[in-house]
Every structure is written in structure tokens, then in C-alpha cells.
Amino acid sequence: MAKEVERIVVHQIDWDEFVEKAKAVYEQLKPQLLPQCKGMVIAIEPETGDYELGKTTMEAGGKLRQRHPGKIFFFTRVGYRTLGRL
What is the pLDDT of residue 7? Predict the structure, then answer.
């Protein structure tokens, strides 16, 4: 049986502003998260500042999606400059 897919409607988003807000939230949270959460993935909803942690983007994003359905999230890895590597 096919799983219903949630639709996300993306209205004219200023991506630079989105990233700037998300990084500001992350910088405020970082002292609380390090060192105990280093290496975990953090999903951030920049408009509210709400966030979730998980081992993967699916885990962190899935938890946050329960509270913010249809929203776009910013992901990064706690204590690192990037989420992953190519």
C-alpha cells in the first residue's frame, strides 16, 4: 500500500535570510549543545527557533515535522561546519 506523501508548499523564500536566521538560532543553542551533543544532527525551524536532535536528518526532521508540518527546516551537525561530506 502506498504511503501518502506530505506536500510542502514553498512560497517565495529568501534563502539567504532563511539560512541567516537558522544559523543565528544554532549559534544561540551551541553552548547548550556542546560537548554532549557533538556529532548529532540538529533540525531547526528558523521562524520559531524550534529544533530537534537526532542521529540522522530523517530522525531529527521527523520529530520536528510533527510540530511543524509543511515547514522547511535547516539541518547541520552539532560541532561541525557541515552536515556531511561529498
Answer: 65
Residues 6+ apart with CB under 8 A from 19: 74
Which strands form 50-54's sheet, in the order they lie side by side?
50-54, 41-45, 74-77
User: Could you identify the residue written with the cell 502506498?
Assistant: 2
* Full-model pTM: 0.84
Q: Residue 85 gets which letter from DSSP?
A: -
Bond from prior residue into 46 cis (ω within 30 degrees of 0): no
**pLDDT for the residue 1:** 54
Instruction: List the end-to-end C-alpha distance of the chain, in Å, as a whole number.
Output: 34
Give the per-residue pLDDT at 84: 81
